[in-house]
Amino acid sequence: MSDFARQQVEFQRGILDGDETVLAEILDSPREKREVLFGVYRYAYGSRLVEAVRNDHELLHLYLGDEVFDEMGHAYVKARPSGHPNLRWFSQGLPEFLKSTVPYAEHTELSDLAALEKALNDAFDAAEGKVVELTDMAGFAPEAWSSLRFRPHPSAIRLDLATNAAAIWLALKNDEAPPEATGLEQPAHLLIWRQDVTPMFRELLAEEAMMWDEAANGIPFGVLCEMLATYDDPDSAAGRGAGYLHGWITAGLLTDVSVGS
Amino acid sequence: MNVASRLPDTAAAALADRPATSAKPSFLGFGLGLRHQHYDEILNGNPPIDWFEVISENYMLPGGQPLRTLDRICERYPVVMHGVSMSIASTAPPNFEYLQALKDLARRVEPKWVSDHLCWTGVHGKNLHDLLPIPYTREALDHVVSRVQLVQDFLGRAIVLENVSTYVQFNNSEMTEWEFLSELSRRAGCWLLFDVNNVYVSAFNHGYDPMTFLNGIPADRVVQFHMAGHSHMGTHIIDTHDHPVCEDVWELYAAALKRFGRVSTMIERDDNIPPLDELLLEVARTREMAKKILPAGKQAG
Description:
The complex is a heterodimer.
Chain A: H1 3-16, H2 34-56, H3 58-79, H4 94-100, H5 108-124, H6 134-137, E1 148-152, E2 157-163, H7 165-173, E3 183-195, E4 198-204, H8 206-216, H9 221-231, H10 237-250, E5 254-259
Antiparallel strand pairs in A: 1-5, 2-3, 3-4
Helix pairs in contact in A: 2-3, 3-7, 4-5, 5-7, 8-9, 9-10
Chain B: E1 30-33, H1 39-44, E2 52-55, H2 65-76, E3 79-82, H3 96-109, E4 114-117, H4 138-155, E5 160-162, H5 177-188, E6 191-195, H6 196-206, H7 210-216, E7 222-227, E8 231-232, E9 237-238, H8 247-260, E10 264-267, H9 276-293
Parallel strand pairs in B: 1-2, 1-10, 2-3, 3-4, 4-5, 5-6, 6-7, 7-10
Antiparallel strand pairs in B: 8-9
């Protein structure tokens, strides 16, 4: 390893792990000791990355308060150093970290809240995609409908939450006191997407969530309606399916509808 | 991976001096760093700004509002791309995924130039998201020259490199920062972004006269000035970009105008972002000072 490479490894270790080897190669300034000057880099590293997490998770920050959030943020920075050149992606692992790390894992609403914020962030700058309009559907002959397949908009994300984190998110967003965190008997099925430039989410019935997930897997409309028939009243299954589809299209959730085998 | 195999011309990996022959970018006037807080005001108004500098990484995204807004800005103003993650002085292998994304963005933006910093941001697969200092050694110079050549070949354009604010100096440095920058620019053919505030900050932190730095930089290599604010800690200064430009830095800007002539100049604010009007006053001051100090039509280089 060259001197230059070794020095960078030691400099980085000094920032990440508090190792002091590199100080032997650093000069005191005319006014300050090298430990203090090197400390500028150490401090900036932690504070910059915690700030990035805070910017991406404003409502989690609001929920936890400054002190607990910063403590959590520094723990995340320590556990998951950034490997991506773009700070935009640094907080991507936060929901998983909160789910798997004590004491945060004992409060499931934290990872749920982080997952919802992450999904909204991801929808915000997701890839562009054409949006299917209701008028596009008029081009399909009635006999073609059973074989229609649907492609979700690139910004669409499905998320199942085990807690009332969505209600907590809504309260915090509206500057209201959040409800007490509770676990749900059945998971909340959320659909997150971007309408024009605004990230949105809404909760789906279990039946609609099933239909969305299967539609996203490429299952054609006719089969989707058969699946709906097993969920609830078989006679109204096609009508329910058409209703859900209408909702997806008017919300801008589909990027393509095609007839295919 | 064989680095050179990723390039159209394997000579890109060679250490030999091979200055780029690209023409010096032209003078753009007096600009501002584009920040999302000002999107609406800029697009709905007609602020007197000649050009914008955008942070490349803020737009290295799949889609959505940031890129849509950038497209609209590019329709109206000349734009320069300024990155923070090229890590040109890192001893880690080049990140071609990053460079490809940068190249893709440049294809979309058609910037007047692409800049980054003379620094490194991490090794061993980690990114510290900071502009870290280097020792000014011949070994480091050879490494950075070859890395700049490689990046320029990959991007298909000469790049512009900025002097960063530093808080430490290494005891094995064999030359000054300005000697390093001058030599780098001459050998690799890259242009220089002279950050007036960073010169002031580093000069204070390391106890030298900023004029020595300024006079040590070849006038014909500088294509851009940055003007920014900082935080004074008593024994050292931190480059925070969260304050207005201070009077000392305005004085140094006047000296820079005298030495470098007419150079594209912009106000860089990254934190504690004020209303656009406040920054426009600073942009106006860069313009007025240049008008007062420089004879009409004087062009650097």
